[in-house]
Amino acid sequence: MSTRATLRLTLDCDNACGFCGQGSRHGPLPFSDDALVALREHGDEISFVGGEPSLDPRLPTAIARARELGFVAVGLQSNGRRLAADDALFSALVAAGLSDLHLSIHGPTAEVHDYHSGRPGSFAAAMDLLERCARAGLPVVVTTVITRSNFRELGKLAPLL
After folding, report:
1. Which end of the chain has fewer CB atoms surrounding its CB within 10 Å, N or C?
2. From the CB of residue 10, how many other CB atoms can be counted at a distance below 10 Å?
3. 4-160: CATH topology
């Protein structure tokens, strides 16, 4: 049975989600090859998380190194905004060995999702990224924070996926 570790690269984020517990903390976190090696000794899957890990310039190298160490799955938890806007970064992550994306989508419409993310246009970016992942053959898991503001709408989300 596989064991998946999570490694937080940064606290930086380009969203402003009202439900986020991170608060005003920002900046990259310490990261070393030793951390990846230690995690590999205890499992064979890893996900990079944040903040928003796609904002960290170390991400492509970290994904490639995780693959070199023998992680059989290397995932990324993301709000998708940077990946939707930066074709080169998306391609670099896939080429480095990204195996799956955990994409935050908090509602079935721009009105609902953008309200939760605090960023107009974030729903459109997520939908664009879903299409890009499908074309690239990259599996996507959609993650949703259930709130009082979106729980009545979530049944409408599945048909979009």
Report:
1. N
2. 22
3. TIM Barrel (3.20.20)
Q: Does the global pTM surpass 0.85? A: yes
Binned at pLDDT 50, 70 and 90, residue 111 comes out as very high
What does the pLDDT look like over 23-71, one tens digit per residue? 667 788 888 999 999 999 999 999 999 999 999 999 999 999 999 999 9
Q: Any idea what DSSP says for residue 27?
A: S
Q: What is the DSSP string of 69-111?
A: TT-SEEEEEE-SHHHHH-HHHHHHHHHHT--EEEEE---SSHH
Place of tokens 């608060």: 23
Tokens of 92: 């670099």
Contacts of 1 (CB under 8 A, 6+ apart): none
Looking up tokens 């989300």, which residue turns up? 157
Spatial distance between the Cα atoms of 158 and 100, rounded to a whole number of angstroms: 19
Length of the chain: 161
Domain ranges, ordered by start, for the chain: 4-160
